[in-house]
Recover the amino acids of this structure.
């Protein structure tokens, strides 16, 4: 096989750095990553202003790396909004290494988020909270944020004051509960003088697993740094929606099993700086974030659909879970899939850090609020009401209640993944006879845990090759968590009941991908693990390099001892045991009632 690795990009970037006259004052520069499709529109916008957009230092997989002057970020944000309806449309990085990691995927092992079962079984607690959501509370928050300060710009005192006010409001909501903390997240001054605000409800039984619900606090008027930027829709509405979700949770005595964090991010408008800082902190500290919901603009109904579900830079399985929440808890409301481009809101920061994220939007990208980023983004645009935001607040409540589980006062919490027995997802152990991970107990699912992490002799994979009867060996080329590997497999019923013939199940595979274009995961199932006849579920591309989660559904056949196989390959065609030197195969055996 020909050498497929790229040359040293650090040297490329160093050579491509823009040069400035030595006599000119030294202006701070930042690295950004931006969708390659945005380069030409941005360049044209710069030229209209007599400016030059630097050439990309690196372009790969639809993402480009540029080194720009910090003063150009606002011009770039304006171009993204005017030309592509994106907000901000790029991610700013303080270092070259951060920008490279965003494009290439870090070669260091990343923590793998727990593979949760997306079940809907917490109706009593969710409905108790839904009934308390009030339009007036959301409206009052939007109105205060958009009228008290001329702007909530990230680098002005008014932006800092808005963050302090929100911290005070959230502290009042917490009302002395010892399991809730509210704090400012202080960023480096070069990132954002404005802090982010985080309210945390510590989980009762799974405190180390985290659910995040966020929106951005800052606002911007792209006509100038001193111009009025009320930002009623963008994004006081999102912050108000999540604030109301937080309020009804506390008012109903809700105590989640998993930790829930409500976040109001600083400095979204100039490159997702606040959320990128926070998401990377969670990644670098190995925090197990199992799901993220982003609320950016919730109060303007520009489309006939109630929700636009962003499909790019989000997690497909979690998106499916989110739309099922809409159908279950807000029947009659509609949704459609949309794309919003690279770095269009804070969900992209979490996705880039390897965490599952979803973003429901108020419209389609071509029918969004025309007043955002202007002095006209006021509550009057929506008739002085926050009625449209109510459904987003309710979606946040159902997302929290069904993903973090736990219960409100007087209700019984449903089970959360883990342990053994009916209604729960079991963790596999190695079966020395069949030579693969196996769950022998009946349950709602089976999870390989850490048994499959790595490939062959690369990395910590134990009992390799982990295929039934050692029938298929792994490719031996490459480096652990730089090249391809299956790291985890899970199968679980969609409805949370026990595995049974005829039940719809979701297969969740965590892989380490080298390339979004050259790598493919083939998923198979077999009704009889002792003598498998493999049936193809489908072949799937990872969404990017690094740790990626891929999901697929199928219906369980008849058989008490079944199995799934993941065949992760570099190039080639689908097969149960491909022979590429970078390929990895793993099986998971489980009991079906």
């Amino acid at each position: 096989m020909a050498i497929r690795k790229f040359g040293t990009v650090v040297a490329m970037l160093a050579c491509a750095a823009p040069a400035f006259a030595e006599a000119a004052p030294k202006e701070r520069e930042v690295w950004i990553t931006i969708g390659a499709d945005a380069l030409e529109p941005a360049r044209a916008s710069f030229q209209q202003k007599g400016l030059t957009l630097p050439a990309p230092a690196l372009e790969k997989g639809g993402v480009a790396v540029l080194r720009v002057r910090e003063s150009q970020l606002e011009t770039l944000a304006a171009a993204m909004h005017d030309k592509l309806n994106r907000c901000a449309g790029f991610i700013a990085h303080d270092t070259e290494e951060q920008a490279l990691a965003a494009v290439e995927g870090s070669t260091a092992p990343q923590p793998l988020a727990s593979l949760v079962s997306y079940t809907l079984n917490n109706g009593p607690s969710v409905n108790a909270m839904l009934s308390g959501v009030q339009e007036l509370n959301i409206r009052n928050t939007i109105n205060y944020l958009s009228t008290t300060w001329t702007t909530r710009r990230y680098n002005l005192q008014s932006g800092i004051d808005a963050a302090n006010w929100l911290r005070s409001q959230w502290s009042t909501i917490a009302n002395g509960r010892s399991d809730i903390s509210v704090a400012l997240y202080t960023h480096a001054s070069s990132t954002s003088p404005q802090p982010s605000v985080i309210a945390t409800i510590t989980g009762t039984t799974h405190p180390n697993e985290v659910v995040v619900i966020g929106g951005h606090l800052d606002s911007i008027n792209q006509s100038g740094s001193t111009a009025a930027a009320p930002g009623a829709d963008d994004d006081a509405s999102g912050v108000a929606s999540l604030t109301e979700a937080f309020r009804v949770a506390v008012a109903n005595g809700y105590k989640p099993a998993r930790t829930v964090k409500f976040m109001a991010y600083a400095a979204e408008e100039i490159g997702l700086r606040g959320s990128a800082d926070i998401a990377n902190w969670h990644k670098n500290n190995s925090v197990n974030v199992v799901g993220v919901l982003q609320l950016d603009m919730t109060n303007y109904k520009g489309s006939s659909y109630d929700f636009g579900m962003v499909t790019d830079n989000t997690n497909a399985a979690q998106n499916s879970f989110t739309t099922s929440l809409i159908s279950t808890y807000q029947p009659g409301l509609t949704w459609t899939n949309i794309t919003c481009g690279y770095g269009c809101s804070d969900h992209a920061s979490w996705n880039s850090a390897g965490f599952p994220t979803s973003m429901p939007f108020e419209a389609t990208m071509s029918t969004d609020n025309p007043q955002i980023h202007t002095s006209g983004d006021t509550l009057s645009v929506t008739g002085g009401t926050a009625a449209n935001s109510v459904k987003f607040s309710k979606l946040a409540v159902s997302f929290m209640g069904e993903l973090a589980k736990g219960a409100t006062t007087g209700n019984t919490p449903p089970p959360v993944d883990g342990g053994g027995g009916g209604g729960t997802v079991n963790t596999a152990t190695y079966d020395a006879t069949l030579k693969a991970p196996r769950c022998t107990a009946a349950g709602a699912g089976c999870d390989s845990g850490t048994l499959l992490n790595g490939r062959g002799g690369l990395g910590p994979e134990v009992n390799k090759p982990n295929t039934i009867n050692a029938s298929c060996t792994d490719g031996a080329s490459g480096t652990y968590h730089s090249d391809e590997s299956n790291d985890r497999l899970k199968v679980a019923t969609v409805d949370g009941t026990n595995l049974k013939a005829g039940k719809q199940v979701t297969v969740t595979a965590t892989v380490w991908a080298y390339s979004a274009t050259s790598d493919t995961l083939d998923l198979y199932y077999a009704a009889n693990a002792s003598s498998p006849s493999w049936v193809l579920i489908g072949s799937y591309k990872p969404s990017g390099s690094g740790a990626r989660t891929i999901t697929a559904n199928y219906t369980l056949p008849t058989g008490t001892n079944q199995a799934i196989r993941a065949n992760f390959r570099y190039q080639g065609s689908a097969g149960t045991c491909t022979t590429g030197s970078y390929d990895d195969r793993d099986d998971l055996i489980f009991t079906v009632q």
